[in-house]
Amino acid sequence: MALDPMSPGKGQKRAAAGNDCSSIHGNTSRTGVFVGVDVGGTTISVGLVDEQGSLISGNNNSYNNSNNNNSNNNNNDSNNSNNNNNDKNAGVQWESLGDDHDPKQLAVRVRRLVDAALSEAGRVMGDVVGCGVCTPGLLDHERGIVRVAANLRGWKEVPLVDILSKEMGMERSRVVLEHDTNAALLAESWSGAAAGLRHVVLLTLGTGVGGAILSDGRLLRGSRGQAGEVGHAILVPGGRAHGSAGVDGILEAYASATAVAARAVQGLPASSSLREVKAPIECVDVFRHAAAGDEYAAGIVSDTAKYLAIGCINCCRFVDPEVILFSGGMAEAGEQLLEEVSKQFELHHWNIEAVRVKLCLAALGRHAGLIGAARAAQLAINRA
């Protein structure tokens, strides 16, 4: 499989024991900045990132990225209620994706958000060293093309890097495209929970189970850029159906937030406190009721943790990571999730060695995608 060169950023620290979510702060007085762009499920987010991986806030200071660690990575749109907003804490500009998905118009909107971020930070385009953009979907990373993206209507073979570099007035070599899950992992290994580590797996637990792999300090992409699709690994041949991939029994059919909610609805007993939930039952409801002592909900959480732990163990056998990070909606269960998965991990792990991989929560929350996109730009420029 192809490996994408990557090395830890200058001044990074190795993650300490436990879920160390501290970030590194640098002097941003007039140093170069990187633009990170996250085209998510329902929003477009833009931020300025310094050379150490910290967001630059409106007062031109580095912002503690770990303040976002209670939010979903990449697609945490539930807290966004108005268009064209500014995340005051982090200096992040965002607006709703809306119904107009025309690539050229999207590039215009991105430039507008970039200009707003620069203005707030007292910067100009001349301070921008590079720009990274992350999206979901199937990408041609090297050519800067979005081959297809389900959430971006009509996007097929879109030369996003060409379009965005023209709109930004930047050299094409200074604009980089990255997959959103890979970007989140780049961010976490730059200034997040895995800062300085060289062997890391990131699992995003949301609608599905996304994955990204860092091996010996490099992103593992594969021959077609599809390495790390851990959620589509078959755990139970002929098992539960999930999604439109046409394969049953895959990990995300058992360990995604969507799967948890679906299981809760199926066969819900009259004795379960989940019947008190007025809105459609969601993954967070199942974990909350399990913590409160509901046996039915606790059984679902335990079963989910078992399959997630087995998926993690399989990752260990394939790529031998130092740490496996959890992000996304299910990760909001925090220590409850870690405790359950760790318990199942111990039950199913081999007894050949005593050392266990560390399981912990991702640290950078909803801004991980754009921070990682900026990191991708930094790495590409450093290699040039």
TrEMBL record:
This is Glucokinase. GO terms for molecular function: N-acylmannosamine kinase activity; UDP-N-acetylglucosamine 2-epimerase activity. Coiled coil: none annotated. Residues 1-27, 57-100 are annotated as: Disordered. Residues 59-86 have a biased composition (Low complexity).
